[in-house]
Design a protein that fits this description.
Blueprint lengths: L1 H20 L34 H6 L14 E4 L12 E2 L5 E2 L9 E9 L5 E7 L5 E5 L5 H6 L7 E3 H11 L3 E4 L3 E5 L7 E5 L5 E9 L6 E7 L4 E6 L22 H4 E3 L17 E4 L3 E7 L2 E7 L4 E9 L5 E8 L5 E7 L18 H4 E3 L9 H9 L8 H8 L4 E4 L5 E6 L5 E6 L5 E6 L3 E3 L12
Antiparallel strand pairs: 1-4, 1-7, 2-3, 4-5, 5-6, 8-11, 8-14, 9-10, 11-12, 12-13, 15-18, 15-21, 16-17, 16-20, 18-19, 19-20, 22-23, 23-24, 24-25, 25-26
Helix pairs in contact: 7-8
Length: about 450
């Protein structure tokens, strides 16, 4: 009996290794995945659901293909078995009188759709040519005709549609995106499907490094890298071709398994219209840290406004003899007023640069809608409007008052400093305790002064 189990285990490992080598570049992994043999219990991958309406980028580039409309020789899939497929086999071998074929022996093999036929027993067959071994296989429709089956929005088990993967690879690799979920995954096994769930910041700026195949339900695996070199991924359903998921299964907890639930593409922001009145009183947010002019305590300052800061556009004034306009922007939380010169004309002559994008082109710098929510106290809002730092401010509140720091240094006992360059070679240093609250300010590093407490507001009679 031990010999039987040993032989079966070796066969399973061989099948996994063989499948890994025949992935044709579709099997991709995040950094640090370990080379270990995969057990049968780990082959399920991720079964979840996803909702959400089609994003413009999705609807324009990824078409849903109903099984009824599959095109012979142009539809390719990869076999991605899940736990259930270890018991109920998907494919049969016509050369072996319809003998069922183990899903593990076909794992990671590419199947090309070859149309449908009717078997001698009256069952409909959905036929495929395996690109890896050049053999024919078919899936037998359990009941009814092919038309009955396909119009019921059914699919073929285990198959992940590679058309979506190919398009996503072409359009997304190297692109900048922003995270729209906080839960992603990293691979733990190079030869298996093991993963670990990780938490990342919302609206984190990332770059797509690889695109490969995910699971049958979520066929497109998108691996991204943040600015610290950390890689993580999400498996998403894009066109939902053969994904086996109904729209009502894409519920809130699983929205991250739709593209729009996990990512926002930097380029897919908004079309800039020359009818500028439509932007008045609209809410926009910054997609990058950018310099803006503001006034506080009677002084005009240039601040590095954090990305994902939301504003209402109060006014759009043309600048003489140029294509530029001055935006008057009211920050939605503190109500502080900012000014930013932008152009609504995309041109190679536009100056300014952030991460390779034109910083002063309205369509690149801003996106419609709210940015990241920031909590501020009533006392802090008054100080923010004046460009001052007060005791117990949070990092968000300091950034709103002073902009992004020019540098950050670590102190003792968990304390740290944000450094701001000022005229005359001076430095303004904001001191934080380990919890991220302001405990004082420092000028020229020579004299520490306690941040002023905000005066209590007088109650109106």
């Amino acid at each position: 009996m031990k010999r039987v189990f040993l032989t079966a285990g070796m066969a399973l490992m061989f099948a996994v290794a063989s499948a890994q080598q025949t992935g044709n570049g579709y099997i991709v992994k995040t950094k640090g995945a370990k080379k270990t043999a995969v057990s049968e219990a780990e082959t399920a991958g991720d079964q979840s659901s996803e909702p959400e309406k089609a994003h413009d980028f999705i609807s324009e580039n990824f078409k849903y293909h109903s099984l009824c409309d599959w095109q012979v020789d142009s539809m390719k899939f990869m076999v991605m078995p899940e736990k259930y497929d270890m018991v109920v086999k998907t494919f049969r071998d016509p050369a072996q009188n319809g003998r069922e074929v183990s899903s593990m022996t076909l794992r990671h093999k590419i199947m090309i759709y070859k149309g449908h036929t009717e078997g001698s027993d009256g069952h409909a067959h959905i036929n495929f040519l395996c690109q890896d071994d050049n053999k024919m296989y078919y899936y037998e429709v359990p009941n009814g005709t092919f038309e009955d089956y396909c119009y019921g929005k059914m699919g073929v088990p285990t198959l992940a549609y590679l058309g979506d993967v190919d398009i996503a690879r072409k359009l997304l690799v190297g692109k900048t995106m922003f995270t729209k979920s906080t839960l992603f995954r990293i691979d733990t096994e190079y030869d298996g499907d093991g993963f670990q769930e990780v938490t990342v910041p919302m609206n984190d700026e990332v770059t797509v490094t690889q695109v490969g195949v995910g699971t049958r339900s979520f066929p497109v695996k998108i691996i991204v890298e943040d600015k610290n070199g950390n890689e993580y991924y999400q498996n998403v359903a894009i066109s939902k071709t053969n994904c086996g998921m109904r729209d009502d299964e894409f519920v809130t907890d699983n929205s991250k398994f739709l593209f729009a639930g996990s990512f926002e593409l930097q380029d897919a922001i908004m079309a800039v219209s020359h009818n500028l009145e439509q932007y008045l009183n609209k809410t926009v947010h910054t997609k990058f840290t950018t310099d803006m002019i503001t006034k506080g305590d009677g002084r005009e300052r240039t601040l590095k406004v954090p990305r994902m800061t939301a504003f209402t556009i109060e006014a759009i004034m043309p600048k003489a003899n140029s294509n530029y306009f001055t935006l008057t922007l009211k920050e939605t939380e503190s109500r502080r007023i900012y000014f930013k010169d932008v152009t609504f004309v995309e041109s190679d002559n536009v100056t300014g640069n952030i991460d390779g994008q034109r910083n002063d082109y309205f369509g690149y710098l801003f996106a419609m809608g709210q940015g990241r929510a920031r909590q501020t106290s009533q006392a802090a809002r008054a100080a923010i409007r004046q460009g001052r730092v007060i005791l117990a401010m949070s990092e968000d509140e300091v950034a709103m008052a002073m902009g992004e720091p020019d540098d950050i240094t670590q102190g003792t006992n968990g304390q740290y400093r944000w450094l701001y360059k000022r005229s005359g070679g001076k430095l303004l240093v904001v001191l934080f305790d380990p919890t991220g609250k302001v405990i004082g300010t420092e000028v020229d590093r020579s004299k520490v002064t306690k941040a002023k407490k905000a005066k209590p507001r007088k109650k109106s009679k």
